[in-house]
Amino acid sequence: MDTFKISELAKEFGITTRSIRFYEDVGLLQPDREGAIRIYQRRDKTRLKLILRGKRLGFSLAEIRELFDLYDTNQSDGQLRQMIAMIDEKQHKLQRQLNDIKVVMEELNAAKSRCKLALNGKTKEK
């Protein structure tokens, strides 16, 4: 079975060992220990990848923990509905952000075009 040291995971994911220890402190990772050395399993590596992805997508650590808890337990209908609701809420938020980004990109492109036109007009005057 593959195992990993904290320094290996930190290097692979481009984060600090302190961040990984923090995720352990808040209960998102549970490495094995050999004395003072943490030994991470493939499950921990996968969870770390999901934590970082969740953070990039705007999930809080509490939301990520809740998703992990739902995954780790026997998923009743209520838990699955809760997970669907969380996902729906996040999708709506991301869609609003995407729409806002599209509007800003259009405004930036228009401003850039106006600047280029102004520069071309000055070049012709000379």
TrEMBL record:
Query: What organism does the UniProt record list as the source?
Result: Photobacterium halotolerans
* Keywords carried by this UniProt record: Coiled coil, DNA-binding, Transcription, Transcription regulation
MF-aspect GO terms: DNA binding; DNA-binding transcription factor activity
Upper classification of the source organism reads: Bacteria, Pseudomonadati, Pseudomonadota, Gammaproteobacteria, Vibrionales
State the SUPFAM superfamilies in the record: Putative DNA-binding domain
> Which PROSITE patterns does the entry mention?
HTH_MERR_2 (PS50937)
What is the protein name given in its UniProt record?
MerR family transcriptional regulator
* Residues covered by the HTH merR-type domain: 3-70
At the top level, the lineage of the source is: Bacteria
Coiled-coil stretches, from where to where? 87-114
